[in-house]
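call fold(seq) -> tokens
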Amino acid sequence: MAFLADVLSRVKPSATLAMTQKARELRNTGRDVVDLSAGEPDFDTPDNIKDAAIEAIRAGKTKYPPVSGIVPLREAIAKKFKRENNLDYQPEQTIVGTGGKQILFNAFMATLNSGDEVIIPRPYWVSYPEMVAICGGTATFADTSIDNGFKLTAPVLEKAITPRTKWLLMNSPSNPSGAAYTGAELKSLADVLIKHPHVWVLTDDMYEHLIYGDFVFKTIAEVEPRLYERTLTMNGVSKAYAMTGWRIGYAAGPLALIKAMNMIQGQQTSGACTIAQWASVEALNGPQDFVARNKAIFRGRRDLVVSMLNQARGISCPSPEGAFYVYPSCAQLIGKKTKAGKTIDSDETFCSELLEAEGVAVVFGSAFGLGPNFRISYATSEASLEEACTRIQRFTASLV
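ret:
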């Protein structure tokens, strides 16, 4: 009898974490590495949010919290959904978890049985299919392409739905592509879902506030109210508020589902860190002006990276609507050789050789389900981005 669980044979380690670790190890040997693999804002958490956490500590708010979250935070979440998304949720329809990952795990653990299917558009965040597998479900994939902006279309969704489909997992703006869906695009997907009442929607809106230009963010239950009773809308404070390490995600949805997720969490971790929850109350209720300032900086970084990558030989990089990633194609470089004679036979090899030759860490696209592409996070300084893109240009020019 094997000691380790069979499920581990169906789960792959995170490629993004693996690349970040590899870059860290190379740095420790003295290599000059520009790491563009991690999806983490380089901004500091705003002072008013940090002050709220300090005040909570001083006030003795350090005891076990309710499993679903402290009441002031659940009230703030309900107000946020009404204020920003025109969605009416009562506080008891919300839940707070230790990051967005726990929200996703709670939902899948509470709903998936063996053989249940979750449709995941690709490219996808690397953790999505692994979470589904751990929770006993089956991930099925709906293809997008660079030609349609890496967005799921209604005909592709229709074809992907089966009698075993339980969830459609949406992510807009997307990690890894940065693609974001317009209201009209979401409505076309909603029209398909209306015809299939057994399919629920889990929408990961973690990058909601990181959209650029005149793009207007919409979430699917807002666009199609008839989906309200079978939609779980997930979000968090990590990206927009530069609070990745505080580990607070949240969601709102039908009460029966929230209660089931609460039961799962009660036997798993109980409530999220009390101090981080009080900080999140301030994040959602406090001044929001820094969000626009940070977004403007991210937009400048996006434009820099897109411009420089499109000047690199053999690279094609679309300009995404949101998040802080680009997902360029390296298809034109497949089959070429490095100076050392190594053939670039895949996007994974491209990224490995780029790291070896130029010290630039990016994540290969096949880890996200769609290649030959690679993901760059531009959540770092312009100086680092310019240096990295210069090195990428040099590397691609050297291929023969």
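The CA atoms of residues 201 and 231 lie 5 Å apart.
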